[in-house]
Structures are given as structure tokens and as C-alpha cells.
Write a structure and sequence with these properties.
Helix 7 (about 290-325) packs across helix 11 (about 375-390). The strands form 3 sheets. This protein has a 6-stranded mixed beta sheet with strand order 5-1-2-9-8-14. A 6-stranded mixed beta sheet has the order 11-10-12-16-13-15, sandwiched between helices. Helices cover about 35% and strands about 25% of the residues. About 40% of the residues are buried. The protein folds into 2 domains: about 30-155, Immunoglobulin-like; about 165-390, Aminopeptidase, CATH 3.40.630.40. It has helices spanning about 1-25, 85-95, 150-155, 175-180, 210-225, 240-250, 290-325, 330-335, 345-350, 365-370, 375-390, and strands at about 30-40, 45-55, 60-65, 70-80, 80, 100-110, 115-120, 125-135, 140-150, 185-190, 230, 255-265, 275, 285-290, 335-340, 355-360. Strand 8 (about 125-135) and strand 9 form a beta hairpin. The protein is built from 11 helices and 16 strands. The protein is an alpha/beta fold and about 400 residues long. The structure holds zinc ion. Zinc ion binds near residues 193, 199, 208 and 261.
Length: about 400
């Protein structure tokens, strides 16, 4: 009998347990984060975008509504569960907000376990599409965009010329057309992290949120001295969600959005500056309620915004590297980590050309000390300011 247990029943038990564990692992998809970027300003392309981050690629099923005049579009994510804690709070926040539409996110147990997502809006005012992407943290992302139909119509009526105010300062005469010729450029500076979110902690205990605020404040003062209109997402050590930062920029008619962060790496030799911007190719369109000509119009706007973001990123990156090179004992090539493309949440929500600069590594002993130093912080701030001004031709 003991031989049967040893040779047959125990291995069978092990195989069944492994298969069971593998099977449950295979099905468990967690919804880890959810953001809601609202735009109240009527001149922008999007009324809102709502992004979700999952532990693995989820399936997305559209639940067809037989009523063609229905104002509700519903999706279902089978086998997805909402992560407890922070994500539940994020979802509650989304469901409580309205901007001429509403979004409801509900966990479902029967008949199939999953998460239901329902959008309710007036199809005469808004339209919906979604895209999928891989995030920096290797999560699977989905962004649902509620497009502003009035903006789309006015662009199409204007032979697909962008009428977005974000493009007013272009040197091709678009500024004259949109009547913003004499307007000061409106720049939003976003000092990363804050409050309970310290960001990375550097050598000697310096916190990323402190570095970001010091540099961000200095950039703001410099730009104001040069005649720009400047808004800071935070001026003190307060908590601020990523979607609140872009909502602030969008609602204040920002022309440019610049987010300031400091880096951290496991390798203590990692050093230097890098600037991120979005590239449309990083997002894959999966669903759209729009006509193909409206989709083409949106692609045109997004491509123009991305091209301006890239131009801004290049300008700021090279200006900052030149500005700080004299502080370093390594060559500028080592400091210049170049412009990189990524889908980061704060860039995804910005309706204006937007960049995120990582001003240095808090994990590098020497660079961390520099980032603590007021002269070095001011040198970075001058670099960022000059990079912005040179693209504005202001
Ligand atoms: Zn950061």
C-alpha cells in the first residue's frame, strides 16, 4: 500500500496541484491602476481619456446594444479582477466624476467573472475610441478616449487644418489664423511627486519630490522673467494625482506641458539626463465609433502634437546637457542619454505638446550630490528654460 502511495498517489497529487496552480495563474488578470484625465476646455480634441493598467493583456468584449440610439457603450473584461486598495479608490474617483458623460466600472461575478465598463454620453457631442499599449512598468495599458465632436467638425470644416490652440505659436502662420498672435505662451511646469509620494530617495537621503520642486520653481521664475505665462502644478509639498496634473494644464489652456523628475537605477554607475515624449506608433488603435475621415483627422492632430513634443524634447535635452556639462568630470556624451519615446501616464493625459525630463540619477553618488546643490539645480533650470524658449521662437 505504501508503495502505491509513494509511486502513484503522491506524484499524481503533485501533478494535479501544479496544474491547478498553473490554471489559476493563467486566469488571474488584475486591474492595477485607473486614471481619468478630464478636459473641461472646449477647444481640445478630447473631453476625457480614461486609462487602465492590467497585470496581463486582457480580452476586451464590446457588449452590443440593440438600440441604435443608445447613449451607452459597454465593454466587458473577462477574468479581470480589481486590485484591492489603491485601485479601488482610483475607480471610485472615476465613477464619481462627470463632464457631460459618465463612466461606470463594476466588478461582475455571474455569469462570468470580470469587470464591466459602461460609458454614457450624447453621441451628438462625443465619440469613443480605444487604444492599447505597453507601459514603462511592463503593464498592459488601455486608453479610452472620449473625443469632442465639435472640435473634430470645426477642424474638418477648416480643410483639416488644426484649430487647436496648442498650435498657435507655430511659425507657419497658424497663429495668425487662430487669432492668438499676441498671446503669451502659456506653459505648465509640473514638479513630479509630492506629499506622501516622495519619489526616489537618493544618496544622502535627498528625495526626488524636493529636487523636482526646486528645479520646477526655478524654471517657472525664469520663464516669467522672459515674458511667458507660467503655471506650476504644485508650489509646495502636496499630494497630486497624475490625472489632476494634466487636468490642471488642459483646463488652463496650456500650450506646453513640461514634467520634471529625477531618475533612479539599480546600477549606481547610471548617470545623466534623458527626456521622454510620446510617439503615436506606441499606441495601437483597437476600437473606434468614428468615421474613417474623422479617425484620419484625429491621427493628423495626434501626429502634429507628437512632432511638436519631439521637437521640444530635443531642444530641452540638448540645452540642459550643455548647461550642466561644466559641473561633470565625464564627457557630455555620457551625460546625454538622449530623447526617448514612452507611454507615460502624465504624457498620455496632456492635450498639448508634452515632455517629461529626468534630470539625473539620485542613485549615482556624485550626481545625487549635484542634484542637491542649488547652483546645479539652477543650471538645469536655465537649460530647461532656454530649451523651451528656443522652440517657441519667443
Ligand atoms: Zn519620478
Amino acid at each position: 500500500m505504501s508503495k502505491i502511495i509513494e509511486n502513484f498517489l503522491i506524484p499524481l497529487f503533485v501533478i494535479v496541484s501544479v496544474l491547478y496552480a498553473f490554471n489559476s495563474f493563467g486566469h488571474a488578470i488584475e486591474l492595477n491602476k485607473a486614471y481619468h484625465h478630464i478636459t473641461n476646455e472646449p477647444g481640445y480634441l478630447e473631453r476625457a481619456n480614461i486609462s487602465f493598467y492590467f497585470s496581463r493583456d486582457p480580452q476586451v468584449q464590446e457588449i452590443k446594444n440593440k438600440n441604435t440610439n443608445a447613449h451607452t457603450i459597454t465593454f466587458f473584461f473577462p477574468d479581470v479582477s480589481i486590485a484591492q486598495g489603491e485601485c479601488e479608490a482610483m475607480i471610485k474617483r472615476i465613477s464619481n466624476q462627470h463632464n457631460g458623460y459618465s463612466v461606470a466600472i463594476t466588478p461582475v461575478i455571474k455569469p462570468t467573472k470580470g469587470v464591466k465598463l459602461a460609458f454614457n454620453f450624447d453621441p451628438a457631442q462625443c465619440s469613443l475610441g480605444y487604444e492599447t499599449f505597453d507601459s514603462i512598468g511592463l503593464q498592459k495599458g488601455i486608453v479610452f478616449r472620449l473625443y469632442n465632436k465639435n472640435v473634430l467638425t470645426s477642424i474638418q470644416n477648416n480643410n483639416n487644418q488644426p484649430v487647436l490652440r496648442t498650435l498657435w505659436w507655430q511659425p507657419d502662420g497658424a497663429s495668425a489664423k487662430t487669432g492668438h498672435k499676441d498671446k503669451k505662451p502659456n506653459i505648465v511646469i509640473d514638479a513630479g511627486h509630492g506629499g506622501s509620494d516622495s519619489g526616489a530617495i537618493g544618496c544622502g537621503g535627498i528625495q526626488e519630490k524636493q529636487v523636482c520642486l526646486a528645479i520646477g520653481t526655478a524654471v517657472g521664475s525664469l520663464l516669467k522673467q522672459k515674458g511667458c505665462s507660467v503655471l506650476l502644478t504644485r508650489t509646495n509639498d502636496c499630494d497630486m494625482q497624475l490625472d489632476e496634473r494634466t487636468a490642471y494644464a488642459n483646463d488652463n489652456n496650456a500650450d506646453l506641458f513640461v514634467s520634471i523628475h529625477a531618475n533612479y537605477a539599480a546600477n549606481p554607475r547610471a548617470i545623466g539626463i534623458e527626456t521622454f515624449c510620446m510617439q503615436p506608433a506606441l499606441l495601437k488603435k483597437n476600437f473606434s465609433c468614428l468615421t474613417s475621415s474623422q479617425d484620419a483627422c484625429i491621427a493628423n492632430i495626434i501626429n502634429q502634437r507628437a512632432a511638436l513634443s519631439y521637437q521640444l524634447a530635443q531642444s530641452v535635452q540638448s540645452s540642459v546637457c550643455n548647461s550642466v556639462s561644466s559641473f561633470h568630470d565625464v564627457t557630455i556624451d555620457r551625460i546625454d542619454r538622449k530623447v526617448k519615446h514612452s507611454v507615460s501616464q502624465v504624457l498620455l493625459g496632456a492635450q498639448e505638446p508634452a515632455i517629461l525630463i529626468e534630470v539625473g540619477f539620485l542613485s549615482h553618488p556624485k550626481e545625487s550630490l549635484l542634484l542637491h546643490d542649488t547652483h546645479y539645480q539652477n543650471s538645469i533650470a536655465h537649460g530647461i528654460c532656454n530649451g523651451i524658449l528656443s522652440i517657441l521662437q519667443f
